[in-house]
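Box 4.2: Ligand-aware structure prediction
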Amino acid sequence: ALCCGGGAVAAVVAWTGADLDTTGKVDFRNALAVPPLAESRVDGEGRRVFDLRAQEGRTDLGQGRPTRTWGFNGDHLGPTLRAKRGERVLVNVVNGLAEPTSVHWHGMHLPARMDGGPHQEVRPGATWSPTWTVDQPAATLWYHPHPHGQTARHVQRGLAGMFILDDEPTRKLALPHDYGTDDIPVIVQDRSFDGDGQIEDGGGTGDTVLVNGTVAPYLDVRTERVRLRLLNASAARTYSFGLSDGRRFTLIGTDGGLLPAPHDMSRIRLSPGERAEIIVAFRPDERVTLRSYPADLDNPVTDRFGGGRDTLDVLQLRTESNLAPSPAVPAALAPIERLDPGEAVKTREFTLSGRQINGKKMDMSRIDAVVTKDTTEVWEITKEDGTAHSFHVHDVQFQVLSVGGAPPPAELSGWKDTVLLAPNETVKIIARFADYADPDVPYMYHCHVLKHEDAGMMGQFVVVEPGQKAGRPATHGDHE
Ligand code: C2O
Ligand code: CU
């Protein structure tokens, strides 16, 4: 990944206090990199085994010299892991860095000690081998480090990758599914660089947008329809994606899986951690730009960290003269059984303000909530300051019951694990905490603006068997 010839200058626009606008300033000179599918093998116990090694590297990020980056099995970012519902997976995570890290499986339903949060730290040179059975719908999940207080830095240096789940019902749908051809991972991250071309990793918004680690990227489109798996893996920025000629696209899935039916729209907003699967239709010989637009004025996210006022060119889509036919988007996708608030055994309130949740900063030795296994709960989340926050819950995929008292819009109507909080609007979610209990090892809930998370905007919950009490979480990794 070392190649710094050419010396073309990326669209770098320093943040001056004004809104950033890179429209027409990005030269789209680089073919979009597509992360390789991770190799795997099936071991004697029938488990699909992956190897992930966090390591240091160097990457050409358009700075005229190599930029020091971190990656899994490479210089920057990581391979795409892929597994089917019902499969047992095992990942050997090797820490080749000079400091502790962890790997969290964002969006995955799994036992807490396999979750890869701050309690599953992996020391330098150590190997951590979580194993679990994939048992949730086909979805676009991702993985990234989650070390206590250091998540922003580790992610901004490049430790992140996609984790695609497949299932039988989805395999039978006529959706674009040829990875790298008409089914494209789109990992969007913003970066800023210092005078030496090195990444500024303080967790703020950046002025340069990377897709799959590529600066100024274009994608050659060869089919009439393309499925884009959009992942906002940025530390702080919220994007409002649309296409430069105003064409509409079809939303087919959100964080935790497909929607019951496709939804036609022209903008999709993703806060840090959120995903959306969209299908875009093309004609021959076109050039269209995937762009991030200022947030809707009727629902503004106006502060600097949200990036809500910026306009950013993200990815140019170039179509060839002959496009292979693609089937129409199916009218029905994946049914979603609605969780019933009448069955909730508990309602909890979470208020985010000043880098705290409910007036408390994260404490690894404190359990903030005890949930009983196989029960349903309603969580009401509100933010009380002028900063953008997104709320993420580990272990579960939840359903949004309401936003500011109103029913959720289409993009919040499916399975979700992360949701952007708007000013003065309580978001009510409902989740079922099934299958796994462990009184001693907590899951996290937190703001996914990574520097807020690192500063303490995070809490811990344990799932216990009925009647069981919470144990005492260890404050260090539970593996040697
Ligand atoms: Cu994407 Cu707790 O993390
Ligand atoms: Cu926040």
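In the box above, the bound molecule is copper (II) ion. The CA atoms of residues 288 and 436 lie 46 Å apart.
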